Amino acid sequence: MPVATWNGTEIARSDDTVVVERNHYFPADSIDPALLEDSATTTHCPWKGDARYKTLVVDGQRNVDAVWYYPEPKDAAAEIKGRYAFWKGVTVA
To answer: I need a surface site. Which of 30, 55, 69, 76 has the fewest CB within 10 A?
Structure first.
């Protein structure tokens, strides 16, 4: 079962991830929302759509924009709607 961790803290765990471009997209309900802080950062992917970001906050430490998601993905990426992926030192194993 894939588990996402950062700084020794489990961020997400689920046996229902979707892998796209080697990134595990975890269901939103597998992540403790208390660890997430809204961010104004956005990016655009030609085939997935517009991504939004969140900052991880663990034990007072912030990992800015370490989480991303597609609130309204394009049809080609519909399977990642309602899911979050990680980077910036977050380990998924």
So the answer is: 76
User: For 61-87, how does the pLDDT look when each residue is reduced to its tens digit (9 = 90+)?
Assistant: 999 999 999 999 999 999 999 999 999
Instruction: Kindly give, in sequence order, each residue whose CB lies less than 8 Å from that of residue 42, ignoring residues fewer than 6 positions away.
Output: 50, 51, 52, 53
3-92: which CATH topology?
A: 2.170.150
* pTM confidence score: 0.95
Q: Would you kindly state where each structural domain of the chain is located, as residue ranges?
A: 3-92
